[in-house]
Amino acid sequence: MLQIEEEAIEDDQPTASKLPSELLTAQPIIETVTKRETVTDSQTIETEDEMWAEFARTLETYQTEVLAAIIDGTDPKAAIQTIATAQFIMPTMLIDGINELARDILGDILIESADEPRFVDDYYAPMVSQIMSQGRNQ
Fold first, then answer.
1. How confident is the model over 6-41, as pLDDT tens digits?
2. For labelling, which of 7, 61, 64, 125 has a CA lying 20 to 30 Å from the CA of 86?
3. C-alpha to C-alpha distance for 23 and 82, rounded to whole angstroms
């Protein structure tokens, strides 16, 4: 009996002769992945600019005012409270709405709703400032 079980185990193990010829000639996975991920910097920048432009288009006027208040930095909490009151919503809901849009379009939230609302990453401030300046010029 022991001898029969050992033979069955040996039969279950794949050998080179049992593998399909396709598997023996397949390219390594790493090589094909790196070929697909090769993107030039200009393409990445265009995509990012397009995402920010779409984000700017989808913002409501009052949401733009909230972003401007955070950039201004004088007293963003009071400014957001005033904007929220005018819209009949809570300040946290106002920030959550902006963050939802940002997450859907940009892939990340923008505003950290701590004691004093601020951008989650310093990188976002210049991008939002650019949106504000373009919105005022148009």
1. 555 555 555 555 455 554 554 544 443 333 343 444
2. 125
3. 65
Q: How far apart (Å, rounded) are the C-alpha atoms in residues 82 and 88?
A: 10
Residues 6+ apart with CB under 8 A from 124: 110
User: Cα separation of 32 and 57, whole Å?
Assistant: 37
Q: How far apart are CA 39 and CA 53, in angstroms?
A: 21
Instruction: Provide the whole-model pTM.
Output: 0.64
* Alpha carbons 96 and 89: distance in angstroms, whole number: 11
pLDDT digits (tens, 9 = 90+) for 109-135: 999 977 889 999 888 899 888 877 876
